[in-house]
Amino acid sequence: MSTSRKRFVIAAVAIGIACASMPRSAKAADTIKRHKSQGTIEARLELLERQNRLLEQQNRTIQNQLSAETAEIESLKVQMQKTAQPVTMLQKDVPELSQRVSSVERKQSESSTEVGFRTGWSESPYDMPGGFFYGAYLNHRLLDRDDGIPGGFVSGELMAGAVFGNHATTSANLTSTLGVTGPSSSWLDTVEIQPTVQYHLEPAALGYEQLSWIKPYALAGPAIYISWMSTPVVVKGNEPGNGFRHGDADVQGGGVFGLGTQLSFSALKMPVVQGILNRTSAGAEWRYNQMGNGEGFNQYTGSLSFGW
């Protein structure tokens, strides 16, 4: 065999061997790839299973929390249902409670004892000309609505004052009778001492809360009148001073009744001095004075009072 032929045979054998070995190596590579892919899939499946178990655990935790919150909500509903009835009852009582609170606040701002001053114009008895009146008084609350007084309260007052009468020309006094100077001027001053009982109406008690600062009242009581003239009346006649006792002083018992109103300064809203305003009031009053000897006269005054 020639050399070139040998080479050809060797090349053919090598190609045949190569061709025979090629399918085995390809199969091996494919097998390796399949194993790797299967391992990856299994790893992913295992990861998914772990994630699924974690999600299930979280879901159970959430459900347990929801169950606990649901139970708490139900418990709160039961408690609300239990308290709903008392709240409804309280709502019905709110107007009455508000009225009671207002009453307590009003009593705290009002004073049970007052000291005050009155001044104004007054007539005089015995046909003498009238004059200015000046007086002072002490007033104390005795009974109120809690004691059964309807619509207001009752107070007791002690007042003392004097009417300073104007001059009147008369010939009935001693100086004129003696003819020293002819008809001369006389004047009459009258001191009043009057303990009275007063009924004060409270509009707030009648449902007029906006008028609580106004308190009209009526009064009545006994009185003592002490009068004196500048000169004694010694002649009876139809002129000023007629009926006055023939002397320079006269003491008479009697009585008094009248009407008035008291206006509280609490209606003025000034926070700086509100405490003082709540205890200060002004008023207007009319009194008729009836003396035991039949003489009588009217009296018109204004007042200013302070409480504590």
Attribute tags:
single chain; 308 residues; alpha+beta; 8-stranded antiparallel β-barrel; two-stranded antiparallel ribbon; rod-shaped
Q: Could you describe the 3D structure shown?
A:
The chain is an alpha+beta fold and 308 residues long. It is 38% helix and 37% strand. The protein has three helices and ten strands. It has helices at 3-109, 174-178, 274-277; strands spanning 113-122, 131-143, 152-165, 168-170, 184-186, 188-201, 214-229, 249-264, 280-291, 296-307. An eight-stranded antiparallel beta barrel has the order 1-2-3-6-7-8-9-10. A two-stranded antiparallel ribbon has the order 4-5. The longest helix has 107 residues, at 3-109. The chain is rod-shaped and about 200 Å long. The mean pLDDT is 81.
Low-confidence stretches: none
Query: Total number of β-strand segments?
Result: 10
What class, by secondary structure content?
A: alpha+beta
What portion of residues belong to β-strands? 35-45%
Report, as a whole number of angstroms, the end-to-end distance: 154 Å
User: What gross morphology would you assign?
Assistant: rod-shaped
Provide the succession of SSEs: HEEEEHEEEEHEE
Query: In which range does the helix fraction lie?
Result: 25-40%
Largest sheet: 8 strands, antiparallel, barrel
The order of strands across the largest sheet is: 1-2-3-6-7-8-9-10
Topology:
Elements: H1 3-109, E1 113-122, E2 131-143, E3 152-165, E4 168-170, H2 174-178, E5 184-186, E6 188-201, E7 214-229, E8 249-264, H3 274-277, E9 280-291, E10 296-307
Antiparallel strand pairs: 1-2, 1-10, 2-3, 3-6, 4-5, 6-7, 7-8, 8-9, 9-10
